[in-house]
Amino acid sequence: MQCPIEDRIAIQDLMVAYAHAVDTVSDIDAVLDVFTEDAVFDLSGIGLAPQLGHDGIRAFFTNVFANMEHHAHYLTNFALTAFDGDTASMRAYVIGMGQGKDGRAVTVNGRYYFDVRRTDVGWKATRYTMDFLMPLSGTLDNAK
């Protein structure tokens, strides 16, 4: 099935909204707004524990935001990898940088994978995963 351009843009915008919310280093509600209540937030591909639902995602970002001073995430190479009317999958390349309150820094070069579903309020992520394209520069300890 061909994906209408309006849906493709909305799904891309959802991924950008996630990156922007993470870069605030404070707005957990904006992060949660990207996901369905029962979403799977699975960063096991980069060595972090999977989280389930808004409660798990909130706990993860409460810790991350408490430990981080700055974030910057840049998304590119968006690719719609599946579309079936009310569900879709999209991949994007990410360069993510962060500096912890302890002064330690991290740079991530990888890919985001979002599975999304159309809801009454627009597209929402039902599953989010990530992998690395390059070896990790720095540490993810501030996210654990």
Which helices and strands appear, and what pairs or packs with what?
Layout: H1 5-23, H2 28-32, E1 35-42, E2 51-52, H3 53-67, E3 68-83, E4 87-100, E5 105-119, E6 122-132, E7 137-138
Parallel strand pairs: 1-6
Antiparallel strand pairs: 1-2, 3-4, 4-5, 5-6, 5-7
Give a description of the structure.
- With about 140 residues, this protein is of the alpha+beta class.
- It has a single domain, classed as Nuclear Transport Factor 2, Chain: A (Roll), CATH 3.10.450.50.
- It has 3 helices and 7 strands, in the order H-H-E-E-H-E-E-E-E-E.
- Strands 1, 2, 3, 4, 5, 6 and 7 form a 7-stranded mixed β-sheet that branches.
- A hairpin with a 2-residue loop joins strand 5 and strand 6.
Structural features:
144 residues, alpha+beta, Nuclear Transport Factor 2, Chain: A, 7-stranded mixed sheet, 7 strands
What is shown here, in short?
By secondary structure, the protein is α+β, with helices and mostly antiparallel strands. Helix content is 27%, strand content 47%.
